[in-house]
Design a protein that fits this description.
Pfam families: SBP_bac_1. InterPro entries: Bact_solute-bd_prot1, SBP. It comes from Nonomuraea jabiensis. Keywords: Signal. This is ABC-type glycerol-3-phosphate transport system substrate-binding protein. This protein is α/β, with parallel strands linked by helices. Among the domains are: about 180 residues, D-Maltodextrin-Binding Protein, domain 2 (3-Layer(aba) Sandwich), CATH 3.40.190.10; about 140 residues, D-Maltodextrin-Binding Protein, domain 2. The chain has 19 helices and 15 strands. The strands form five sheets. The protein has a five-stranded mixed β-sheet.
Amino acid sequence: MKLHRPAAITAILASLLVAACGTSSDGRGGGSGSQTTLQIWDFSAEQVNFHKDIGAQFTKEHPNIKIEWRSITQADYMKTLPLAFQSNQAPDMFYWNATGLSQLLDQKWISPLSPSGTVPADFTKRWPEGSFLEGINVQDGKTYGFPFSENLYWGSGYMFLNKQVFQQAGLDVNNPPKTWTDLKNTCAQIKAKTKAECIAAPTKGPDMQRIWYAMISSVSTDEFFDYKTGKFDLTEPGQVKTFSFIQELKKAGYLAPGTNDKNFSRQQFAADQAGIFFDGTWLPSVWASQGFTSDKYVVAPRLNPDDGQTGAAGRKYDTNKYWVSSQTKNPDAMWTFIQWMTDPNGYFVKQYYKNAFGTLAYVDNQKMVTDPALKQIMQIGGQPGYRVQLPVPLLKCPDIAKSKAYVNALAKTPDAEWEAMGEALVSGQSLESVGAAIVKQRQTALEEGLKQEAASGLKVSMDCYTFPDWDYTKDYTKDMYKD
């Protein structure tokens, strides 16, 4: 389902709200029963049956609480959730990773995890030390979030190879392309010997991140901001070079034609109509839900430029994705569910891994993962230098927790980088010329915002965002932050 008009988005919101009404004792549904209903929203369509099972089991263990877990398409979700908050009809808990703690608090969207605002030590000890940080998921001593996905294996930047297409092309799927030139040679053979496309690469809006992250992560940083230089970097040499290579692939006919979204491209690969697809840790569960099992493809590392790896994918502390809504009327019941959901040996965790949905931050992944594709992903992601810890301005300058300058700089046309890439890919223009305006806009907003905040008393500056001693291929460790 793809609905993009405002009226259609409103209709989605209305259907979610009507469906959620019923037996709630919080006044939302008008029922007189004693059972509290918790509404949870996300956009994980492949997890609908899993969430139904989770809700049923939780209610079996907690008969006075019912879970209504709703999923819609990601594009619609990003429009529907803000409308729900504007109309004071938001769910009790929601999934959100587009912005962090500071902006969510500023928007008045979130409440602390527990009714008291603090969480006990037996809760936080489920995570590795350092998982709860002021400004990341803690503000003024109150805990608002918890790391959901771990940050070593979880993420984008993996290459998936279709066994049937590779076999038809006379290629060894266990000897994947390793460099940009290898990829071009592989594509030439697939195009010459099969009816399949070489790369099913979605290029519609933010979906372009699939191929982009698989290329740029070996060149510099997979962020649109370079913490080494303190600059928004879309038009920097490494980014321009990488995008030019993607344009090369398109010109040679190695990218599937059309401006396709991720769902179309995933289905294209699963239907043996493409040999290669780039995506992330979550993909095995998406394909499994469509009947495309892990014995039909292999997972390989991302590609390096011909002159070798000079960058790596970034690891972040901020993998907090589920938040308690500021509009919940059931904070005690919500806290009960969160504790149950994050039990490392509990039902949620066991079923999550049984369905191969990914890797969690509060679980021993080496012990729990059984899916062959996820095991391949863990082997790849666990290699030194495949993912590196990014510098964190907050750890250098604690007042960044109170700063809105960076958030405001990103808020100006949020998808502008992807839009610039899409325009350049279609027109053939250089990324440097198409992206210059957005880089200037973001950089000016950040620098001016920091200056204004510094004048008001915050200890912030561009120095907080600049780490000239960082090597793109190595972790920026805690001992590297200077007092």
